């Protein structure tokens, strides 16, 4: 069995102190949005990340840790890869001919 040690993200002290005084979106909104299956919910989480002072650090940390899924730093991760949009589950809709 392998164990991995997550390396903490280096965030400047001033940035951490400012974040502690700020209501970070991922702390005040529904946390399930950041790990939702529905593409619309993931897009909503990405929008919330846009106003976050830790967005860049969050994204860098997620990349360093190899996060498997969720919204991190305003980006959607799927199987450890950043994707532009998540596609809905199931079969694609039929297009009228």
TrEMBL record:
Membrane-crossing segments per the record: none
Record's keyword terms, sorted: 4Fe-4S, Cytoplasm, Disulfide bond, DNA-binding, Iron, Iron-sulfur, Metal-binding, Transcription, Transcription regulation
Protein location: Cytoplasm
The 4Fe-4S Wbl-type domain, residue ranges: 25-82
Record-level GO BP terms: cell redox homeostasis; negative regulation of DNA-templated transcription
Organism superkingdom: Bacteria
InterPro entries: 4FE4S_WBL, Whib
Post-translational modification: Upon Fe-S cluster removal intramolecular disulfide bonds are formed.
Cofactor(s), by name: [4Fe-4S] cluster
Cofactor binding description: Binds 1 [4Fe-4S] cluster per subunit. Following nitrosylation of the [4Fe-4S] cluster binds 1 [4Fe-8(NO)] cluster per subunit.
Family in the record: Belongs to the WhiB family.
Protein name listed in UniProt: Transcriptional regulator WhiB
